[in-house]
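Hypothesis: this fold can be encoded by more than one sequence.
Test: take the structure tokens below, design a sequence, compare later.
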């Protein structure tokens, strides 16, 4: 099994390369940026690519972009992407990319669990789809309606907001302080993914979310 590894951190790159070699993989190239990844794949025609998401030259999602492009042009190339953090958009984009070979998305901390990591590499190389369990849980939560993230009290506050009541009126109805109401509303905005914005009224957007979820 010929592998091209892409990771900009020298110590991590050498560590993963050594680990793969120890378990019988032939690491034909280990590179540190996305352009070099593309060149190495063209030069060595590997069976599997293992790459980090964030890499030079952009230090953003260069590794992921390279992986998606490789899957599009080489449907038989298996790809395993490693990420420092849970980034659901990146995971979804990789899994939706064209290609019939195995594909995987793992958090980097899985590398320290040697047997779990090697098993994932083997499964991806063998044609399976492997997604980090933590990422799966986050994806499942995202698919549920946002209102399910709210506590019972937050839902009560949002219901009163939907009736057009002010913070003072909500506090009176629930027999709590206005400060408590303000705290609950902040929690509602956060859980409904409504960041501060000059162009949108978060209170209105929160009410609209409530109405779509209860109508």
């Amino acid at each position: 099994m010929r592998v091209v590894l892409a990771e900009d951190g020298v110590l991590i790159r050498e560590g993963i390369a050594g680990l793969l070699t120890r378990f019988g993989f032939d690491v034909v190239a280990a590179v540190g940026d996305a352009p070099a990844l593309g060149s190495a794949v063209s030069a060595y025609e590997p069976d599997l690519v293992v790459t980090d998401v964030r890499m030079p030259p952009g230090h953003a999602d260069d590794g992921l972009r390279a992986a998606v492009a490789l899957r599009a042009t080489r449907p038989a190339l298996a790809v395993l992407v490693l990420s420092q953090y849970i980034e659901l958009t990146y995971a979804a984009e990789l899994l939706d990319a064209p290609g019939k070979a195995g594909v995987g998305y793992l958090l980097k901390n899985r590398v320290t669990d040697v047997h779990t990591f090697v098993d994932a590499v083997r499964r991806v190389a063998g044609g399976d789809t492997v997604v980090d369990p933590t990422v799966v849980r986050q994806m499942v939560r995202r698919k549920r309606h946002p209102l399910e993230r709210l506590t019972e009290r937050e839902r009560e506050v949002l219901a009163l907001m939907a009736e057009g009541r002010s913070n003072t009126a909500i506090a009176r109805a629930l027999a709590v302080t206005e400060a408590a109401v303000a705290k609950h509303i902040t929690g509602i905005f956060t859980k409904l993914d409504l960041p501060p914005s000059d162009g949108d009224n978060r209170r209105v957007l929160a009410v609209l979310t409530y109405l779509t979820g209860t109508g």
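Residues 146-214 form a domain with the Arc Repressor Mutant, subunit A fold (CATH 1.10.10.10). The chain has two domains: 2-141, 146-214.
Hypothesis status: open.
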